[in-house]
Amino acid sequence: MPQHFDLILKNGTCVLPWGEARADIGLLAGKIAAIGDLRLASATQSIDCAHLHVLPGMIDAHVHLRDPGDASVETLESGTRAALLGGIATVFDMPNTTPSITSSEQLEWKRGYAQGRSWCDIGFYVGGAKSNLDDLARLEVEPNVCAVKIFAGSSTGDLLVEDDASLERAMRSGRRPIAYHSEDEYRLQARKPAYEAGGPHRLHAEWRDVECALIGTKRLVGLARKTGRPAHILHVSTAEELEFLGQCRDIASVEVLLNHLTQTDEAYDRLGGYAVMNPPIRDARHMAAAWAAMANGTIDVVGSDHAPHSRAAKERPWPATAAGLTGVQTILPLMLDHVSAGRLSLTRLVDVMGAGPARVYGAVGKGRLALGYDGDVTLVDMKAQRRIEESWIASPCGWTPFAGHLCHGWPVATIVRGHVAMRDDTLLGSPQGGLVTFR
Length: 439
Ligand code: DOR
Prior knowledge:
- By secondary structure, this protein is an alpha/beta fold.
- The chain is 28% helix and 25% strand.
- Helix 4 crosses helix 7 and helix 8 runs parallel beside helix 11.
């Protein structure tokens, strides 16, 4: 008997977990209900995808939506709006807000706050702090928590767990992978005085150097092995760490950022404070290593580390420059541009921005085009050419380090649990994002 669907995506080139195939996709009651030849089926709505690639709804597993915080920079509403416009169907939001999210009460508040405000689906990190180390086992299994996040090196905000004894205590409290900012705090602090006099922004990368990242990662992986607690190392930025982590697949997973795949330290001269982030962008050797790690499978996840700051904070002279870049809206266009340039395949892109984050964080129903999965789909036009412009950026801070970049390939629709939430740069309906469930 011919079936009826809410939405049929007709005749697109679908990036399925087992490779690309031309197929129709039928969505019903927010789920993927059929993949195949649906010419005989009917639908309330259909989209002709003959010239498009059909990807699972893309996930950005690393965003700082700053809510609660400074609404003139970003809010949960504006950040998730930016996500949809950039083809992102799901975000995982970091806990270093003002105040930081470290308790059950705050998580409960955030769950309620996100309803009716989030445009895309959302999961929440809970911050590990010295004050809640023994509570982490309980906090990490609260609804919609993607992971505990621990800043083992200091960055924006007040979260910090730097010593081995506290880190070990955190690792012994719970079972799910912990996501780490892994720069070594001791080396970072020891080197700071030598860099406090100011100077060009590239001093940022000299201060927070390769050793700082490598020592941090080796310490964390050592403790992870000792305790048997999986470690997800965020924003791996050095060739040395990638080589090391390639030998640690038993206990560690790897995130690399779009920025470290796209920018080298020449950006300090071009962008000044707008290139400053933690860990820093580095020289071409490290970018080449990141692409090698893309090719050999070391990378599990690519995220944006979307971390908006006001223009005033970015324009403060170094070392007072705020660290962090906007990115949730531009990560997919730039990754599509990398695909067009032949640096990775669409299948690998879907691996690192779909299946990979879903696997590492245990997100239920996300990251794959497969029967019974959430009806999350990102439609992309690989023939489109479009320049990234600051006027397009939805985050109130209003800037991107990629202004002027011509992208070959562009997201044209974001579908979230069967609802076409963004099409051709227009948001449809109201914020209907839901909360992600994790294993
Ligand atoms: O550059 C960064 N900015 N790195 C981080 O780890 C934090 C982020 C922020 O929240 O500003």
